[in-house]
Amino acid sequence: MPVVRIPTPLRPYSGGKDSVEASGSTVGEVLTSLTTALPDLKDRILDAGEVRRFVNIYVNNEDIRYLDDLATPVADRDEVSIIPAIAGG
């Protein structure tokens, strides 16, 4: 199963876990599996079934926006990283 990396700001919604396994053969399926197991994450990473614009998703360090977005294929042991945008000033 793919491994999903949970960033520090989202760990309160993952029970403190920094990574979890989620099933699926595409990024969309993996995110569905993830948010089914950890429903508190859903509103923080998805909006109406799409990745929120301030959240970046990577598969093995490749931004899915430059691949096939939610249809990007994932294989067993691929690493899916959730990277929320950070603002400051």
Mind explaining what this structure looks like?
The chain has 89 residues and is of the alpha+beta class. The protein has one domain: Beta-grasp domain (Ubiquitin-like (UB roll)). The protein is built from two helices and seven strands, in the order ββααβββββ. It has helices at 27-37, 42-45, and strands spanning 3-5, 19-21, 46-47, 50-51, 55-59, 62-63, 79-84. It has a five-stranded mixed beta sheet, covered by helices on one side. Strands 3-4 form a two-stranded antiparallel sheet. It is globular. It starts with a strand and ends in a 5-residue tail after the last strand. The mean pLDDT is 94.
Number of domains: 1
Rg: 12 Å
What's the end-to-end separation, in Å?
Answer: 39 Å
- Unreliable stretches (pLDDT < 50, length at least 5) are none
Please name the fourth-level CATH homologous superfamily.
Answer: Beta-grasp domain
- What characterizes the major β-sheet? 5 strands, mixed
Provide the residue-averaged pLDDT.
94
Query: Would you tell me which CATH topology applies?
Result: Ubiquitin-like (UB roll)
Q: How helical, in percent, are the residues?
A: 10-25%
Question: What is the H/E string?
Answer: EEHHEEEEE
Structural class: alpha+beta
Number of strands: 7
What is the global morphology?
globular
Strand content: 25-35%
Give the name of the CATH architecture.
Answer: Roll
Q: Identify the strand order in the major beta sheet.
A: 2-1-7-5-6
Count of alpha and pi helical runs: 2
CATH class: Alpha Beta
